Amino acid sequence: MLYSFPHRIGAGRICETAWQQAAGLASAGADVVVCSASVHRPLPDEVTTWPTLSRGAARLPFRLLGDMRTFALHDRIVSRRLRARPNDFDVVHTWPLGARETLRSARALGIPTVLERPNTHTRFAYEVVRLECERLGVELPPDQEHAHKPDVLAKEEEEYELAAYLACPSDFVAKTFVDEGFPAEKLIRDFYGYDESVFHPLEEPASRRRPFTMLFVGVAAVRKGLHFALEAWLRSPATSDGRFLIAGEILPSYEEKLAPLLAHPSVEPLGHRRDVPALMREADALVLPSIEEGSALVSAEALGSGCVPLVSEVSSGVCTHDRNSLVHPVGDVDTLASQIAELYANPALLARLRHGAIASSSAVTWSAAGERLLELYDEVVSMTAPRRAEAVAAL
Q: Are 122 and 58 part of one and the same domain?
């Protein structure tokens, strides 16, 4: 398979997701060739890497051409490599904004294509974030990823149409595409996992020797719903002796709006942290009340850490309500506050959900995600085999 990623694979956030996907596919038995702009962290030996915008230690800086032109350059290089070796690949997996020409070439060659969708349909994402920012009176910086960008939206929508399949990491992501008129058979359901060598639980404590602790992890933008989490926390009895830790940067205009809530003595903004695995092991619950989400990595990481997720229905992904987590409707502060209060006051409930989180976590590792993705590829290839045979015969 050809795995095309127009960023620096292994560098964090989606770059880490792509690294884990490629490594997981190789571990599951796929013969993987990664074409990424550059390689930040070496992939396993069984993965072949063909960097497009780097040679040795030298890399083409994105700032030189700008993101969109750099993505397009990567895309053209991958497309040429694919056309030069049309019989080498059974499937092509691409990522947004660096896929258009590669998808066209693969279609001409009869090779099935998958476009990763790390978030919801971009038109939906832009609109729901815009409305919530307006409701809060928060200005979204124009360079923020969910600020409306017509050129980004136009290119992504073209890629949606060109791809044979869209890989959706949650049911909610798939729903936003169905709502935009995409046929269900074009949408395949993968999922994102966690690294069990990094995220693992503490031994079950004999007794609680610290305050009840709730944790928020990630860049605190409006879409992540930190304002809902703060409102719910402050309505709960946990504020009497509990702690709400916020590990992540908060956008300045958003932080200004949240200042009165952040000032409560039980709330501890920590800024960007590199010790998230340790924070998760020590916390009782992870809160993620997003209004828009792909499949939050922190939810799987929390399960693996024995930290009970409190998530909105769009963030649930790998979570199952009342088995390994508690799920609430988007923006339902009353329900979230009640759930925090329940976990705070009921150690038996917390222990049961913690046990459920740990028990279910083996099914959502990156290795398991790689096996699932390879199964999807097998299905995709078998469904498109007749068209591939026709295209190869015409070469």
A: yes
* 164, 265: one domain: no
Same domain, yes or no: 21 and 115: yes
What is the distance, to the nearest Å, from the Cα of residue 286 to the centroid of all Cα atoms in its chain? 16
Residue 136 lies in a domain: yes
What does the DSSP assignment read for 23-73?
HHHHHHT---EEEEEEESSPPPTTSEE--SSEETTEE--HHHH-HHHHHHH
Dihedral angle over CA of 230, 234, 238, 240, nearest 10: 130
Within 13 A of 391's CA, how many CA atoms are on the CB side?
Answer: 17
Q: Is 69 inside any structural domain?
A: yes
**How far is 288 from 60, CA to CA, in rounded Å?**
36
In which domain, by residue range, is 70 found?
Answer: 2-193+366-394
The residue length of the chain stands at 395
Residues 157 and 229 in one domain: no
Whether 68 and 149 share a structural domain: yes
pTM over 0.70: yes
Beta bridge partners of 384: none
Q: Is 77 left (phi over 0), alpha (psi -120 to 50) or beta?
A: alpha
Mean pLDDT by 10 residues, the chain (395 residues): 97 95 97 97 97 92 93 98 94 98 96 96 97 94 90 98 97 96 96 96 68 95 96 98 97 95 98 96 97 92 97 90 97 98 97 97 97 95 69 56
The verdict on 325 and 352 lying in the same domain is yes
